[in-house]
Structures are given as structure tokens and as C-alpha cells.
Amino acid sequence: MARGGLPEQEPRFDGQAMQNSSILGATGHHDSTQAAGFSEKNRQTANDEEQGRRLADHRRRCEPRKQTYSGLVLLWVSFQATGVIYGEIGTSLLYVYSSTFTSQPSWDDLVGALSIIIWSMTLVVTVKYTFIVLRADDDGQGGTFALYTLLSRYIRIARQDPHAVDMLEMRRYNSGDMQPGGRSLRSFLESSVGAQLALKIVGLAGVSLTVADGVLGPAQSVLGAVQGLKVVNPTLSTPVIVGVSCAILACLFCLQPFGTSKLGTGFAPVVTVWLLFNLCSGLYNIATYDYTVLRAFSPYFAFSYLRRNGTAGWESLGGMVLAFTGVESLFADMGAFSKRAVQISWLGLVYPCLLMAYAGQAAYISRDASGTAFTNPFFFTIPPGTFYFGMVIAVLASIVASQALITSTFQLLGQVMRMSYFPRIRVVHTSNRFYDQIYIPVANWLLLLGTVILTVVYKDTTSLGDAYGVCVTIVTLITTFMVSLVAILIWRLPPWLVIPLFFVFALLDGVYLSAVLAKVPDGGWFTIVLALVLSTVFAVWRHGKEAQWMAEVAEPLTAQSILKFSTGTDEDEEEDHGHDWDGDQDSSQQQQQKRQR
Asked: How far is residue 179's CA from residue 472's CA, in Å, rounded to a whole number?
């Protein structure tokens, strides 16, 4: 209630209200009151226009924008993508065979393992990711959380900040435009709180696992690269290896403020030379030692290997999965380069180079009389006279391999901040031309701290390697599940077409996951625990934001409450400060001046 017992009313700022006010208050001040009203209206209009410009500018700066490239620009971006995305998957050539076998393999087992590697890269990376998953972008953004936000645009599964200027644009289809199975699935997801919670957990798990891999990956890659120097100098001590690794990690993270574009331009020649060197080495070995290993392109040898070796063959999948570790970066880093750039760089360069490189290593190992080539497949199988060049490029490529996970971390954290799952921290757009290339200073230095701690604590790649592969297999399984939902609900494909494909890819992901989960007690637990901690942080922050939004909707801050609060504050000031420290009461004129202030 207002003073005098009259009911309070919402202030009206239209012209009729000002006209009535001027008539009722016409006591010689009609002209001045009307002028004040028009002046106030002009100020309000100017403020509204200024606020509108600021909100529009904020939307342009903060909302992701899908960028497309063509011609020479597309080729240049594809070249940069090679340096940033494919370092990790490319350097798997250093240790896949040594992680798969514990003794000299027979020809049948060697060709069987090669067949599994070839078809895993073909089905998981080429077919699933390059041709299917990359189509499921959220306005150009990739990653498992982008799949969740994409679903949130088409089905009502997530709350949004009602006052946000960068709210998700809803694009919900009419029921008549969907397949019957899609309508039923959408209705279930929109009505089931449990299903919505499960989707949220799955989306956050994908982000957390990738970020956890961003802590583990650089330590593994750089430490492995420095340990490779023992090939030249076997007397290198562990403290020296750890110290050099930490120094390289510090330099790598200090380069991040230069931005993805500059780093990609600098790293791309290293990765490109590495891939082409392995391509030439593989072709040389195939032609020189054993071209019959090319029979591994038949999937018969893959099934024969698993049937012949039983449990031992299943356990060896934990080593073969390393052939496509880093595949999650293809999707997570897509926002920094574009879908077409990722496809061109993989299909045009990386994929054929890796196929020939693995086949060439198998060709040399199959004719190795010493029985030790599988323990260090890269250095033993490179052509004569290229050892030192190969060593230098291998060390450089291993260092660069960390960049894919670092860039993925920046991209994913930017996405969770936009959806209010993480506090708004400083994000730097490092390119005026490529909008989605970002750098997050706080995340960069925290990643540096985490990788240095891991390097100092573990000291070698053996224990770290036990945790490697757990993240990628869980993320690929999550991606399979969520892309299947996108195919039914957004692409509006019939469920009878999507479900069989889902089971094929889920079976492949599940087999690899079951093999790598055996490593959890030996070190894989670290990645899972770190991912659980990150998921908890994301979920708790989001819960607090949703509670805030509900409170704001339930008790909105109106102009009436603002005026009432302002009046009450003035009265409180009169009561609290009506007397000065000497006990003398303020004059009425002083109190009036306080009210005016």
C-alpha cells in the first residue's frame, strides 16, 4: 500500500499518463511539468536505444556464428586444421604395435591386428565422424555438448535464462512434419524428467571426459617425445627427462595466447611433414619387405584374429584403440575450422598417410629376424639413413600433438559457459576473420598446472598410458547415442533406418570400451575421477543458475518494487540519521535535501 492507504499502481510511461499528470497538477506549473515529462521520455527513449545497441552488439560477439569457407581460404583453413587437430591421432604410429603385442607376433596375428586398425579408422573416424557426426553441428560448433544444445533447440528439455540476450533459438517442428516414431520419442523426452536429466548427464560427461583428456594428453605426448631421446642417449636420467618435459609444456602453453590460427599455421608444416614422411616410409617397407600385408584390407583377417585369439585378442584391443585416440578432436575442434576443412584434411591427407604407414610398419615387422621391431615400430621401420631426421620430426610432432586437446578444451568450455553451466570467465577471440577461434586464459594456466603435476608425479608414460584410451572410447559411445537422437528428432529420419546403424556403431564402441575399462585399476581411474569432479562442478553451477531464474520469475523486480524500495530507503535514512552525533536533530531543510539526493 502506498502512503494515504491508496493502492499502488504500476507506473505508466505512455503519453496519456503524462498528459493526465500535467492536467491534474496544473497550478501554474503546467508548462514546466509537460516539458519535464517530454524530457524524461526522450531520455528513456535514448537509454532504450543505447541498451538495444549494446544487446545487439553483445549478441554478435557472444553468439556462435556458423562460418563457411570456399576456394583458397578453405584450403588454407584445412592446412591449419591439419596442424591443430591431427597431431595426436598422427603420432599414434609411435606406439600402437608396441601397445598391442607383448612378443613377436605371427604373420596371421600381425595382419589381423593391421586389419582391425584399418577398419576401425575406416568405420569410426571416416564413416561415423567424417560423414555423419560432423553434420550434427550446432551453428558450426562441435562436441558432445553441442549435440545437447542442438537437441535443446528442437525439443523442450532444458531451462533457459529468461533475461539472456543469447538464448537458444527454438526451432521446434510441427508434429505433422515428423515421423510417427520421432513424435513419440520427442513427447517422451519432453514429459520425462528422468530422461531430461539423463541427457544432461550424458552431455556433461562428454565435455568432462574431453577436458580430462586435455590434462592427460599433453603430459603423455610431451613426456613420450622426450623419452624417445633415449634412443640416441640411453644415459638420460629420469629427473632430466621430467625437467625437460615440464619446460616444453610451459613453452607450449605460453604460446596459446597467439591464437589457433597462428599456432595452426606454425604447427601444420610439422604435422604435414610427419605424415608424408610416414607415408613414404610405409610405401618403401611394403615394396621392400612384404607387400602381402595389404591383404589386411579384407575384414576377414580382423574377425579371424579375434576368433583365433579369444580373450587375449579382446585384451589387445586396448592397444589398438590408440590408433584413433584423438578422434574426438575432429568434432570438438570443428567450430574453429569448419566441417569441410576437417573433412578435406582427413580424407585428402591424414587418412591415406596413416593407412600406408601402419601397413608399412607391419611389412617390416613381419620380416624382422631380431623379433624386437614391434617394441619400437617407428624407429625400427624407417628407411636407412633417415634415423636422425625421423627422430627430430617425431619429437616435434609429439609436442604438437598436444594442441588438439588444448583447443578442444577451449571450444567446449566456451560452449558450457554460453549455456550457464560454468561461470563467465574471460574469453579472447584470437582472430578477426575466424570468429570461433578462442583462447581462455584461466583454463590455459590451469591445464598447464595439471599437466606439469602429472608429469612430475608419474615421471614416465607407462602409468599414464593405462589411462589413455578410456576417455576416447566413452566419448565415442556418447556421441553415437546423441547423434542417433539428432537423426530421428532433427534430421527426421525414420527410426527403422537409424536404430540398426546405432547398434552397429554402439557395438563397435562397446567392444573397445570393454577392453580399455580393464585398465581402470592400473591408472585409468584418474581420468574418470577427474571427469566426475568436472561434471559435478558443471551440474552444481547450473543448478544454482536455474534456481536463480525460477526465483526471478516468481518474484520479478518491477518498477513498483523499485520505487517502493527507494522510498523505504529514504525513510530509513531519516530514522537512522535524523540526529547527528552531538544529539541535535537535523533541520527540516537538511532532511528535505537528503530526500532529494
From this structure: 33
